[in-house]
């Protein structure tokens, strides 16, 4: 009873901190953009627009100031700010570094207290832009003491709530500390990242959610870029979107928080899977901790954790299903197998990729059917899970098939509309060759830039596995990106050599883990071959592969017992990878 009271108090304090932060923020509304040709358009922030020519933009709108309010804001323009006016008065730039007025990464902070009053205030901002993207962001400023205090309060309360939740799940203290630290890093990244940054097709996902929230029904599958996707995530997103709208909270930020919750449930089940891996405890229980730290501090995981997308919910269901299947494999209690099948069903109606968990379960059961004497029991189980998983596939088929542009594209209807610039060669060399030099020297990849390795399947798969298809422009992050890429290749070397030299019993004991890796890589490989576009080889489609790759990688390092130098090199490389990732993200603070 005391625990429930503790959780309730922490939750309401956290909610109060979030509401106070939102109440005291300066709310920018009714924004209009006027371009150099005099065209006026209503917009929302953050604003991004492609401009073929150099031009100037004037933004007008209102800033609402509460009785108790933050007074400093951060402005991030592309390419620079010419002037800012608030209530007809020109804001002074005397105390601002002139170079920061055109800093499109960190921007500049201004104190607008002398220019505003309680209630509505009119503002005007004029920016200039070169050929390319024009953009404007107006954010809260960490130079504002009230904003900094409230965000630190939110982080501390979130960490405490997560700490007690993990304790109730019987995690040991070291694991709890690792996971709480990961939440803190994720929250820092969330606070400093808008919903539109480092995201895939976010407007398509958002429009799907908004349609459900407004119409209380699903859109036609062919009526929008992402509308063919299975609906479960978008239904939950619409509920959160509606609640945020009712309470006055930023809807897109609420959806990012929803993704963060799904992602940490994914991490919890990932750790549960690790606890089921016997060699962690047969050899040394301390192997488990670096594996847990690698999972929670994997760089693309932190990036993925706050994206508005159905990917994160799919990761959650896939990993939960894998956990229950491994638990059934160990304990032979059928309810765990059926739970795994239900997770696969729910994952499939979230994102079709989860069907590959069904393949892992099905192949494993068929293998058991061949090996075991009691075939009747396995036949029954195969029939039951086949029915459960097939229901998910059937629901997607019935919704999409009649609307598909081509009837054989009901799974991924947007594939026919991909940009020609995304196409890549489909020759043997694209799959057999790995450009090591490019992988290290080019810290990040791009689906439209050949110089960043996109033509080679393994280069693009591994690089998106580290950072997604995103870049970070600062020199520090460029260097850290190359360091992390180099460390990853060493860990990959340990993994490959470890299992090439392993005995048959070890491979058999890791059967489900290896099968999961094989099935997922085969799925993305086949998709990339059938549809030769660089984006179709993105690691985000098979992210749950990490749940089995990481423990096998750590165990491969531990196999170097007789070569002590290699053993310690492997552990040092792992620690450096984790430290570099943490440093990479905490230095994104704006």
Written account of the structure:
This protein has 21 helices and ten strands. The chain has helices spanning 2-24, 145-168, 173-191, 202-215, 232-247, 251-275, 279-283, 288-296, 299-304, 311-331, 334-348, 355-371, 375-400, 428-432, 436-441, 457-467, 475-500, 504-509, 511-530, 546-558, 564-586, and strands spanning 27-34, 40-42, 47-51, 55-65, 72-78, 80-86, 89-90, 108-111, 119-129, 132-140. The longest helix is centred in the middle third of the chain and has 26 residues, at 375-400. The radius of gyration is 25 Å and the shape is globular. It starts with a helix and ends with a helix. The model has no long low-confidence stretch (mean pLDDT 89).
How large is the share of residues in beta strands? Answer: 5-15%
Question: Which consecutive residue ranges, at least 5 long each, have pLDDT under 50?
Answer: none
Strand segment count: 10
Our Rg estimate from Cα atoms comes to 25 Å
* Number of helical segments with 4 or more residues: 21
Helix residue percentage: 55-70%
Rounded mean pLDDT is 89
Overall outline: globular
Structural class: alpha+beta
Question: Gap between N and C termini, in Å?
Answer: 42 Å
Major sheet attributes: 6 strands, antiparallel
Strand order of the largest sheet: 2-1-4-9-6-7
């Amino acid at each position: 009873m005391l625990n429930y009271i503790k959780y309730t108090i922490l939750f309401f304090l956290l909610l109060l901190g979030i509401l106070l932060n939102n109440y005291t923020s300066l709310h920018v509304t009714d924004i209009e953009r006027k371009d150099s040709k005099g065209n006026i358009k209503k917009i929302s922030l953050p604003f991004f627009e492609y401009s073929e020519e150099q031009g100037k933009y004037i933004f007008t709108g209102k800033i609402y100031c509460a009785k108790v309010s933050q007074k400093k804001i951060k402005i991030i323009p592309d390419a620079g700010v010419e002037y800012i006016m608030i209530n007809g008065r020109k804001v002074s730039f005397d105390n601002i570094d002139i170079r920061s007025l055109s800093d499109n990464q960190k921007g500049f902070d201004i104190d607008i207290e002398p220019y505003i009053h309680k209630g509505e205030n009119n503002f005007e901002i004029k920016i200039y832009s070169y050929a390319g993207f024009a953009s404007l962001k107006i954010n809260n400023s960490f130079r504002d003491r009230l904003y900094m205090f409230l965000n630190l309060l939110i982080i501390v309360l979130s960490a405490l709530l997560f700490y007690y939740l993990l304790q109730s799940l019987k995690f040991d203290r070291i694991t709890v500390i690792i996971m709480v630290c990961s939440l803190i890093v994720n929250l820092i990244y969330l606070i400093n990242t808008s919903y539109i940054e480092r995201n895939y097709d976010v407007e398509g996902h958002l429009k799907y959610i908004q349609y459900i929230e407004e119409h209380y029904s699903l859109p036609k599958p062919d009526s929008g870029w992402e509308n063919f996707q299975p609906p479960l995530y978008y239904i939950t997103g619409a509920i959160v979107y509606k609640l945020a709208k009712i309470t006055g909270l930023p809807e897109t930020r609420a959806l990012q928080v929803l993704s963060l919750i799904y992602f940490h449930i994914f991490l919890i089940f990932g750790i549960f899977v690790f606890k089921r891996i016997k060699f962690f405890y047969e050899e040394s229980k301390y192997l488990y901790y670096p594996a847990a730290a690698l999972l929670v501090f994997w760089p693309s995981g932190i990036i993925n954790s706050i994206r508005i997308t159905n990917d994160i919910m799919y990761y959650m269901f896939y990993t939960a299903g894998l956990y229950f299947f491994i638990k059934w494999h160990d304990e032979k209690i059928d309810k765990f197998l059926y739970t795994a099948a239900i997770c696969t069903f729910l994952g499939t109606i979230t994102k079709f990729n989860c069907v590959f968990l069904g393949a892992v379960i099905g192949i494993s059961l068929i293998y058991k059917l061949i090996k075991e004497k009691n075939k009747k029991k396995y036949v029954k189980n195969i029939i039951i899970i086949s029915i459960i998983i097939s229901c998910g596939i059937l629901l997607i088929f019935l919704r999409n098939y009649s609307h598909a542009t081509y009837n054989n594209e009901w799974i991924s209807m947007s594939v026919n509309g991909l940009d020609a610039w995304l196409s890549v060669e489909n020759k043997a060399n694209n799959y057999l060759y790995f450009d090591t030099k490019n992988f290290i020297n080019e810290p990040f990849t791009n689906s439209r830039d050949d110089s960043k390795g996109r033509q080679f399947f393994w280069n693009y798969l591994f690089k998106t596995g580290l950072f997604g298809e995103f870049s970070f422009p600062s020199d520090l992050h460029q260097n850290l990106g190359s360091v992390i890429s180099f460390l990853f290749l060493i860990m990959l070397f340990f993994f490959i050599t470890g299992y090439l030299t392993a005995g048959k019993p070890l491979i058999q004991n890791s059967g489900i883990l290896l099968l999961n890796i094989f099935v997922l890589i085969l799925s993305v490989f086949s998709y990339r071959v059938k549809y030769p576009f660089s984006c179709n080889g993105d690691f985000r489609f098979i992210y749950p592969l990490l749940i089995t790759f990481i423990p096998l990688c750590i165990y491969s390092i531990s196999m170097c017992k007789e070569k002590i130098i290699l053993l310690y090199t492997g552990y040092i490389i792992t620690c450096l990878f984790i430290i570099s990732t943490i440093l990479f993200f905490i230095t994104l603070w704006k």
